[in-house]
Amino acid sequence: MKMKFNLKSAAALLAAASLVSPAFANDGADSGKRFPHLDHVFVIMMENHGYYQVLGNPNEPYLNSLVTNKQVNLATNYFAVGHPSLTNYLEIVGGSNFGIRSDNSPIWGDGSCTTNLSSGIVNADNAGGNAPVPVDTGDVCPITGVGKDAETPAVDNWNEVSVPPSLGGTPPFYNYLADIDGFKSVPQAFTVGKSIADQLVEAGKSWKTYQESLPLGGAYEVNNSNGTVSNLTDFTDLAPLTSNDFVALYAVKHNPFAYFLSVELGNGIQNVVGFDGPGGLYADLATDNVPSFSFIVPNQCDDQHGKSGAGAFCAADPGSDGLQAGLNPGLIQQGDVTIQRLVEGIKASRVWHEGSNAIVIVWDENDYSGLTNPPAGYNPPQTQTGQFPAQNQNKVALTVETNYCNSHGVQSTKYYNSFSLLRSLEAGFRLPCLNHACDPGVSPMTDLFGGSNNGNW
Predict the structure, then answer these.
(1) Which whole number is the average pLDDT over 333-357?
(2) What is the DSSP string of 60-92?
(3) For the range 234-240, what are the long-range contacts, defined as Cβ-Cβ under 8 Å and sequence gap of 24 or more?
(4) Would you say domain 7-449 falls under CATH 3.40.720.10?
(5) pLDDT tens sequence across 222-259
(6) Pairing relation of β-strands 224-225 and 207-211?
């Protein structure tokens, strides 16, 4: 489905919409009165493990030591919004799913295709074959313009539904997937197709996303890579090797900025870099050339996602009931060591000791397990207590460490979600809230970032 939709017309729509939509409310200045000003923020993204799979896990000693020793503040009631990965990444950096509830790759550089915002049709997998709404299952038109995003139901029984083990499915993920906390839903809403990257540029600030295992040639049109070869590689001279012979360590579905037309066709693609090489994460830390906002994404072995064919310390979890049973201890430890390497690398840099800075460690979503009130006839496996784990409905871990506040060791019981994280970043950078980050009840995580909160958000 194609239509002409140029950037000029999108800008006109945006300007008109900003006059009437609460999604464009500029509350950044108000938030700044109580939320600490931030010079640099480092967000480290981890994958596919719930709160109780990480906290107290003996194979996650470094992360747990940060909590136990009160080096970090911990959100004990933080939830991812939906499934799958890409949706959560978009919600953290843009406050919306933008009509995308899949992990499909972008249609690189196509400024004329019809966006999901424009069509109102959700891009989804429809793995259950029973989608209650029209579904677009193709690659994703680059995000731009304005329109309505996709509803996130409290319980999803049609999208990203796994194949049961009896039909060859593995691992045996549950066939009813709890979004947010199994009770709340996010209705479809008016949305502007931009991210915090666009906001930072407009405010004269800088950003980068550091994506481990990107090839040195750059990110444009790269959907997967092991750091040496990618989906763009011509394997003619590598015979008998083929494109099936490398493990996709980098995955574009974990790179939300690559889905925005402003990044694909503008200079923003230069801000999508790897961990190594000139302009990479470790070079920038060594030279104090660090942007205001660093969005750091380890590869799929190091972020605890897991990939087959990459060894025991990268193999996906064989199964889980939402707790620690059934996890791959090697994968958990691989991710924990990665967190330690990143955090200590950041704190060893000179920039960490200059200005007001924060490190956020967060998991994108749980492992699809944990639904408190399953539909009639739904029979999930029981836990060791004989009860379904009611505490695990897309609840994930989030920690904050700052260099400016002595109130470390805070354990916040306040309800937060991915939109709260975006609003916190925007408040710290004195930016207006964006999309669902403006929703009633979504507040900055002031207690975790060491600010004052009189309860009037």
Answers:
(1) 97
(2) -HHHHHHHHTTSSEEESSEE--SSSHHHHHHHH
(3) none
(4) yes
(5) 999 999 999 999 999 999 999 999 999 999 999 999 99
(6) unpaired
Q: pLDDT for 314-327, tens place per residue?
A: 999 987 767 888 89
Q: Residue holding tokens 């209650």?
A: 132
Find out whether 364 and 88 touch, Cβ atoms under 8 Å. yes
Residue 127 Cα to chain centre, angstroms:
22
434 Cβ contact partners less than 8 Å away, ≥ 6 residues apart: 23, 24, 94, 95, 192, 194, 195, 196, 199, 422, 426
Residue type, 255: N
- Select from 119, 118, 122, 145 the least CA-distant residue to 18: 145
CA angle at residue 301 from 296 to 304, to 5 degrees?
Answer: 75
DSSP code string of 154-173: SEESSTTPPPPGGGT-SS--
Distance from C-alpha of 53 to C-alpha of 369, rounded to nearest angstrom: 11
Within 10 A of 267 (CB to CB), how many other CB atoms are there?
9
Q: Is the pTM of this model over 0.85?
A: yes
- Taking the C-alpha atoms of residue 102 and residue 137, their distance in angstroms, rounded to an integer, is 8
